[in-house]
Amino acid sequence: MNGARLWTIARLELTQRVRTVAWYVLLGIFALLLIGVTLLSFLAFGGWGTGGAGVFSAVVYVTLLLVLLVSPTLSGNSINGDRDAATLAPLQVTLATTGEILLGKFLAACITGLAFAAVAVPFLVIATLAGGVNGWAVVTSLVVLVVEVGIVAAIGVAISGILARPLFSVAVTYLIVAALSVGSVIGFGLVSTAAGSEFTSKNRSAEYNSNGEIVCKDGGHDCYGDTDQMVCGEWDSYTYRVPRPDRVWWLLSSNPFVILADATPTSFDRHGNPDDLFGWIKTAVRGAQSAPELQSTWDECDPQYLDGAEYRSGPTPEEIIATTVPSWFVGLGVQVLLAALLLWWAWTRTRTPARTLPPGTRIA
Amino acid sequence: MESPGILATGVRRSFGNVHAVRDVTLEARPGAVTGLIGPNGSGKTTLLLMLASLLAPDAGSLRIGGIDPITDPAGVRAITGWMPDALGAWSSLTARETLVATGRLYDLDAATSAAGAARLLHEVGLTNLADAPARVFSRGQKQRLGLARALVHDPKVLLLDEPASGLDPQARVELRVLLRRLAAEGRTVLISSHILSELEEVVDEAVFLVDGATVSSDRVAAAASRRRTWRIRLADRDARAAVLPVAGVLGLDAALIPIDRRDLLVSFETDAGAAAALAALVGAGLPVAEFAAATGLLEHTFLDLEGGRS
Q1: A279 and A266 Cβ atoms separated by less than 8 Å
Q2: The pTM is what?
Q3: Is B132 exposed, middle or buried (0-12, 13-18, 19+ CB in 10 A)?
Q4: What's the confidence (pLDDT) of residue A132?
Q5: Structural domain of residue A180, as residue ranges?
Q6: pLDDT score for A311
Q7: Average confidence (pLDDT) over B193-201
Q8: Taking Cα atoms as reference points, which of B264, B254, B221, B190 lies closest to residue B36?
Q9: Residue contact A19–B105, C-beta within 8 A
Q10: Tens digit of pLDDT for each residue in B52-76?
Q11: Roughly how many angstroms between the first and final C-alpha of chain B, as a whole number?
Q12: If B52 and its partner were Cys, which of A300, B82, B109, B309 is the partner (CB 3.0–4.6 Å)?
């Protein structure tokens, strides 16, 4: 691995990109989009002063979304597109190794993705200045954003080295990104519902007469709360299926948006509620870890029910997050492993002197 | 001892069911320009890809400057310049940037790359287009850029795939001069083409490739020595008027001598026969203005081998 050659290859890619007008149009559209997102987020998160964290998380999420949407087009044809344009072989006959060519293109794709993050910087600064932003949350979420940019870039470059047709490889890169970000959610929903459990609900209420007055054993109507005197009805029981997200919550762990939320430390207000989007998504995902109640009992003749002790409200987001396990590093590990495996496969496909060629390609 | 030029022995390569190269054995000497001649689809490009260390042969051995491109591709790449037949240029980069970047990929430092780029641009006649993006280049200009790119690292061995295609006559002359000079500097130059008149003037040796196999020197010699046609033109009359006197001197039937525009076409078994005929014509006092082989030796050999194939 030679740094000068690596950088020369990355620069070749980048120089060609910065000289296309479409590229600047895309960045401009993105900037406009972020202006809208920032304004709306300030309205949604309570304006200047307290809404900073919420606005910050919204801008980071939109940036991640855009990188996921755009990056496959920019990186998904970098190897096979060059082969089609007959500019790959001239690189391969130089002293640049296959690894340097792949990594150089990966580096260029990363820098391209980071250009979007760079456009988002002014908006992130505005959000931070608005106040209420936790420094660790800024650092962590930006690091995760950069890593995700790298993973998408690596997948795109790798697929373009594995598949022969540029159009097809761009589509496959999109499918992989969609599988991670949308497919994981759909899969989570379907599997947790399909693998659901029986939920039993038991109810018993006191007897009332037709006037809506309680019926007492002593014939009076003034015994409500006295379980010895109340006349209790029959137990009524019915069952239905409930989803079991606790069985498949890990399906969500390699979702880029979930990784971003799960990795970022959350600040809570005094009610135990998160102050940004990351926190709310983290609460939803972590909440999926705990097994749902599989039966409920509602008994008007139970003194504890009448005390209200059994029917306290559920845990706050802060309690949910504190009592469940983080999974972002597993998800990120899976993504890194996937990207590395694909890159290795692309390397074996692009190696020269070539023994086998992908069907339908010529080397030059 | 191995030749420091190019040596290929029993090389074979197929793509699925297509046997692009079936049996190639050739040698190209340093200091000489060797022509690789064959019809379309005869395996020229595949062979050059293998020599350029991009493609592995299924069988056989290759040595470029004594180095095996399979076991040491980097070693071969350091001493080999390859110019592909497909014109791949980074379309938004300028010619100068292309050459500088290529130089950097051959481990030249920035200053050497820049100086080399300027020198090569001058050599291939692209100096006034040096800072124009390659996308505005014509086919011939791209071709010259491709040649310059192959020369960036001062290679000992040059593999040129159809370098003359798309070049205007002036550029072809310049290419010829450049190739002769490169060979004179002791480099090994292997050049493929099917523009045979082009090659005729530049190659020292020729290797014929038919159906993915090199043609043995015996067959080449036999094909080369077969009957050839010569063009004859007299200075003082047109072809119709020249038929009778020429036929008379050469003892031929005037009705059987074909006329091609201003020239008469007469075929001779051997060079000696042609020389004797010329002597006879001049001896008979005919003003011979032109007496030349109608086809070059390479073309003649090529067409003969081709004809023998089908």
Answers
A1: yes
A2: 0.86
A3: middle
A4: 76
A5: 3-188+326-350
A6: 54
A7: 79
A8: B190
A9: no
A10: 999 999 999 999 999 999 999 999 9
A11: 39
A12: B82
Q: Which of B12, B70, B104 to mutate to test the interface with A (most CBs of A within 10 A)?
A: B104
Indicate the pLDDT class of residue B310, thresholds 50, 70 and 90. Answer: very low
Q: How sure is the predictor about A163, in pLDDT bands with cuts at 50, 70 and 90?
A: very high
Q: How many domains does chain A have?
A: 2
Chain A hits for B149, CB-CB cut-off 8 Å, are 90
> Are residues A68 and A109 located together in one domain of the fold?
yes
Structure tokens that stand for B10 in this block: 């029993």
Q: In this predicted complex, what is the ipTM?
A: 0.83
Q: Which among A94, A354, A357 is the nearest to B105, CB-wise? A: A94
Mean pLDDT of chain A: 88
In a domain, A340, yes or no: yes
Distance from CA of B276 to the nearest CA of A (A): 51
Q: How confident is the model at residue B1 (pLDDT cuts 50, 70, 90)?
A: very low
Compare all CA atoms of chain A with the CA of B152 and give the residue at the minimum distance.
A94
Q: Do B107 and A354 touch (CB under 8 A)?
A: no
Q: To the nearest whole angstrom, how far is the Cα of B86 from the nearest Cα of chain A?
A: 6
In a domain, A119, yes or no: yes
- Of all residues in chain A, the percent with pLDDT exceeding 90 is 54
- Cβ contacts of B54 on chain A, cutoff 8 Å: 89, 92-93, 352-354, 363-364
Residues of A in contact with B69 (CB under 8 A): 353
Same domain as A238, residue A336 = no
pLDDT per position as a tens digit, A284-334: 999 999 888 888 887 777 766 656 555 556 788 998 998 999 999 999 999
- The whole-angstrom distance between B268's CA and the closest CA on chain A is 44
Task: Fill in the amino acid letter for A143.
Answer: V
- Whether residue A361 lies inside any domain: the answer is no
How high is the pLDDT of residue B191? 94
* A90 lies in the same domain as A205: no
Residues 6+ apart with CB under 8 A from B9: B25, B60, B61, B62
Partner A contacted by B131 (CB < 8 A): no
- On whether both A155 and A29 belong to a single domain, the answer is yes
Determine contact: B77 vs chain A, CB below 8 A: yes
Q: Per-residue pLDDT for B243 more than 50?
A: yes
Residues A259-289 have pLDDT tens digits of: 999 999 998 888 888 988 999 999 999 999 9
- Whether A137 is covered by a domain: the verdict is yes
* Of residues A19, A88, A352, nearest to B53 (C-beta): A352
Q: Bigger pLDDT: B59 or B302? A: B59
- Letter string b/e over residues A329-357, b meaning 16 or more CB atoms within 10 A of that residue's CB: eebbeebeebbeebbeebbebbbbbbeee
Preceding omega of A90 cis (within 30 degrees of 0)? no
Residues A76 and A153 in one domain: yes
Contact (CB<8Å) B102/A90: yes
Contact yes or no for B97 and A15 at CB 8 A? yes
Could you tell me if A301 and A153 lie in one domain?
A: no
Contact predicate A141/A57, CB 8 Å: yes
What 3-state class would DSSP assign to A112?
Answer: helix
A:B CB pairs within 8 Å: 91
Are A52 and A169 within one domain?
A: yes
Q: CA of A6: how far to CAs of A11, A76, B44, in Å?
A: 9, 19, 32
Backbone angles phi, psi at A204, to 5 degrees: -145, 135
